[in-house]
Amino acid sequence: QVQLVESGGGLVQPGGSLRLSCAASGIIFGIDRMGWYRQAPGMQRELVAVIARGGRTNYADSVKGRFTISRDNGKNTVYLQMNSLKPEDTALYYCNVVQRFNYLEHWGQGTQVTVSS
Q1: Within the chain, how many helices (H) and strands (E) appear?
Q2: Which of 57, 67, 79, 89 is at 20 to 30 A from 112, Cα to Cα?
């Protein structure tokens, strides 16, 4: 029923840019907050950025000034613009969506971002 479709990952050189997208469908009663998490090999999952329904944002310190999260409520889509990418940004990036009212969470399958020369 609920589906999160992620796109935009890939291989990029240090200093390059990527834009991730995540489109949610099947969430009948709406979405509260949306965000992006990442997990690198041997590391635990960490929050990258989150955006509330009204547009307020929070970022991990490691990505502040380089990444920008945004959302289109009409399209139920969240984006992550990633600039000045570093090798340490290499990870599997997961979209996270929290629906309204009961705050049930949904996760995307993950999209790989690799930053390497």
Answers
A1: 0, 11
A2: 57
Mean pLDDT taken over the chain: 97
3-state secondary structure of 87: helix
pLDDT (tens digit per residue) in 52-87? 999 999 999 999 999 999 999 999 999 999 999 999
Q: Are 33 and 53 contacting, i.e. CB atoms less than 8 angstroms apart?
A: yes
Give the length of the chain: 117
The rounded distance, in Å, linking the Cα atoms of 11 and 113 is 6
Pairing between β-strand 77-82 and β-strand 18-25 as defined by DSSP bridges: antiparallel
* Contact between residue 63 and residue 49 where contact means Cβ atoms under 8 Å apart: yes
User: What does the radius of gyration of the chain's CA atoms come to, in whole angstroms?
Assistant: 14
Q: For residue range 6-22, what is the model confidence (pLDDT) as tens digits?
A: 999 999 999 999 999 99
Amino acid at 112: Q
29 has a pLDDT exceeding 90:
no
Beta strand pairing call for 10-12 and 111-115: parallel
